[in-house]
Model the fold of this input.
Amino acid sequence: MKIAYVLNTYPQPSHSFIRRELHALERQGIDILRLPMRAATVPLVDPDDQLEATRCEYVLQAGLLRLLLALCLQAKQPKRLWNSLKLALSLGGRSDVSRLRHLIYLLEAAYVKESCAAWGVQHVHAHFGTNATAVAMLVQELGGPSYSFTTHGPEEFDAPHALSLGEKINRSAFAVAISSFGRSQLSRWADFGSWQRLNVVHCGIEPARFSEPKPLPKGDLRIVAIGRFVEQKGQMILIQALAEVVKTHPEIHLSLVGDGEMRPDLERAIAAKKLQDHVTLTGWLAEEGVRAELAKSHALVMPSFAEGLPMVVMEAMAAARPVVATYVAGTPELVQQEETGWLVPAGDPIVLADALKQLAGTSHEMLEKIGQQGRLRVLQRHDSDVEAAKLAALFRNHLSS
Done:
């Protein structure tokens, strides 16, 4: 089986779950052509990401002339080309900027179709229901392979009409959500007749990388938060909560792993709250560095306002670390109150502070027990090879039908 993966920007530091999925599918014997639109604009610090980048055929690096030539080749099937042009313009809606963007997607789709034909691709899969899926849908309309796609959230669920999410589902061979919550959101926009095409395939971890979790550390309470520094990840609320916690637990220390546009705001907030001795900003770390930060910590904190199903929560649980997370999207499907961690409402620094105080007051033995219960749960539900086998079965079932 030969599958093309159409992606927007890949690899990226925050998208290691896609790389794990690709490698797991290849272990299942599936050949995969990687067709991202563009390379990452941030440095790739993880050696696995650096290697993955060398395996990609970047569509936009082909240049405008090559993309125009690919589009001209579609004139051999004028009706399909005309229908694809109409589809691209309809997806663009009334905005001239959006229409132009979708005409660019049509150029990309023509190139992707030619690459798929040269490689003998039987099916196209995209990640995220945004522009990558628009390109995959236009590839099919041009007469190329069928397509499917995986949605993650929250971006797709924030703007389903602007993204034509329902039409993308209805035209697809099948659509995948990474949680039951995600599937429920897709059901809101798909025709009832398309509901049987909606599937849940979890993002996965590689258990071998967490085969021997480090013991929970002794000493002062250390917590870690991992993610892009953007509003939806809620790090600013965490800083506000931490300012309350240090009043009664001055020994607490937070490591913020990641980077992004909000870093200057976070640095100012840390200084304003006089938390410089309690917070370390590490920048982006390779997977080995992330695991090292988890090993040094007693718990992961995930204060997000919106999510899909966070990979860092899975990784923390696999490392036998309790999790304090917000009650959003698919997170409660993984984090169970006082069994694998604590759940709090999003956006409330006082309630988050109370949960962190509860964490600080929990015995070392109980934290170990909670961590082990979380580890068992995530290994049962999120093994990358098991989840890839589900996706491979969907590919095979479609291609054999």
In short: The first strand starts at residue 2 and ends at 9. The domain at 2-204+383-400 is CATH 3.40.50.2000 (Rossmann fold).
